[in-house]
Design a protein that fits this description.
By secondary structure, this protein is an all-beta fold. It has a single domain (34-152, 171-372), classed as 6 Propeller (Neuraminidase), CATH 2.120.10.30. It has no helices and 25 strands. The strands form 6 sheets. A 5-stranded mixed sheet has the order 1-18-17-16-15, with no helix packed on it. Strands 2-25-24-23 form a 4-stranded antiparallel sheet, with no helix packed on it. A hairpin with a 5-residue loop joins strand 13 and strand 14 (211-215). The chain starts with 29 loop residues before the first strand and ends in a 6-residue tail after the last strand.
Length: 374
């Protein structure tokens, strides 16, 4: 059986060790090669007090952050909990203005809310929330009304419980999700959903919400996935998947053909420490290895850049779309300009980032100063 480790560090049903996690296959096409020791550190400012919450409102674990064309910030937060200490409902979608001032909560008490994962905003400023707990993806219009629903959660009348992981994995079902993680769109409006912790695939719909196909399955080979944790598209419609437990970003075309792999192989500083737990070793799960991508974000504009991040040593990586590493910033910690498991990142421009940190219970606004890099 597979051994699983979820984002909060709890071991699921597990047998055996994960030494095989680190046996990576040869890449299908171009793999980004980084020369150790030659990576620039990008100077940056970090504002941990940018968001201004109302009195008596607090963030729990902000798992998602997105920015629309008007610079409004959307935070998908594991807060507003009801129920027992374990298995509580933990999902809340909040909107803030460009100045960080709180505007509203969207979808309060929505049927899909169970356990927040990611939030995205499309080119028309529609807001998409991906709920890992209910296995649903919801599209809201800019006014906050539900426009599309993808997936369906288990019915309470059927003694609903979470999906269990078995080996071999259950076959994926068209239109049904098992712990989905993220969503993106190509220039034609086709919808791509990374799905996720159990199915390990990408689901493709057309712009009208009609099922097209799926690609990817559990494994470590070319085109296979293990915890596709984030997804983004470039201006040409290529799809970048944060293949987290396999320690790589895989790049597909819109039909699911593998174009290349990207690896973040920068050296780990000697003083690096995890936010909690023991130091990762060669036998640690791939999710927590250096360079294991938790996020994937692509900037707009004529020259696009790829940003990603890992849990340890807790850095952000700036790259070209073909995988050349241009610089790194930050490290694990609890202080400003440090990170506690960046779960999603918004990159509205090359030098402006917003990061949702689930362990530090905050969204941090970053302003990069690459001209000052050494």
């Amino acid at each position: 059986m597979r051994k699983f480790l979820n984002e909060t560090g709890h071991l699921g049903a597990a047998v055996g060790l994960l030494a095989g996690m680190l046996l990576m296959p040869a890449p299908a096409a171009r793999a980004a090669e980084v020369t150790p020791g030659g990576v620039a550190e990008i100077p940056f400012d970090g504002d941990v007090n940018f968001l201004q919450l109302p009195k008596d409102m607090y963030l729990g674990e902000p798992s998602g952050v997105a920015v629309n064309s008007k610079k409004h910030i959307f935070v998908f937060n594991r807060g507003n909990t009801t129920g027992p200490a374990y298995g509580a409902t933990a999902a809340q979608l909040l909107e803030f203005g460009p100045d960080g001032k709180y505007i509203r909560e969207i979808g309060k008490n929505l049927y899909a809310w169970s356990y927040a994962h990611d939030v995205r905003v499309d080119k028309d400023d529609n807001i998409w929330a991906i709920d890992k707990g209910s296995d649903m993806i919801i599209k809201f219009n800019p006014e906050g009304r539900v426009m599309m629903v993808f997936g369906r959660k288990k019915e309470a009348s059927d003694e609903a419980g979470p999906w269990t992981r078995v080996s071999p994995p259950r076959p994926a079902v068209d239109g049904q999700f098992r712990q989905p993680t993220d969503v993106t769109w190509d220039p034609q409006g086709n919808i791509f959903i990374s799905d996720g912790y159990i199915n390990s695939r990408v689901a493709k719909y057309d712009k009208n919400g009609d099922w097209v196909k799926q690609f990817g399955s559990y494994g470590k080979g070319v085109g296979e996935l293990d915890t596709p944790h984030g997804i983004a598209a470039d201006a040409q419609g290529n799809i970048y998947v944060a293949d987290r437990a396999n320690k790589r970003i895989q790049v597909f075309d819109g039909d699911g053909k593998v174009l290349r792999e990207i690896h973040m192989d920068a050296p780990v500083p000697a003083d690096s420490r995890p936010w909690m737990g023991a130091m990762p070793t060669a036998s640690s799960p791939g999710n927590f290895q250096p360079g294991s991508p938790w996020t994937v974000c692509i900037t707009p504009g004529p020259t696009q850049y790829l940003y990603t991040s890992d849990a340890f040593p807790g850095r952000i990586y700036k790259m070209t779309l073909d995988g050349k590493l241009l610089g790194i910033l930050g490290k694990t910690g609890r202080q400003p300009k440090q990170f506690g498991w960046i779960h999603e990142m918004a990159c509205p421009s090359e030098n402006e980032l917003y990061v949702a940190e689930i362990l530090n219970w905050r969204v941090q606004k970053l302003t990069l100063h690459p001209a000052k890099a050494k």
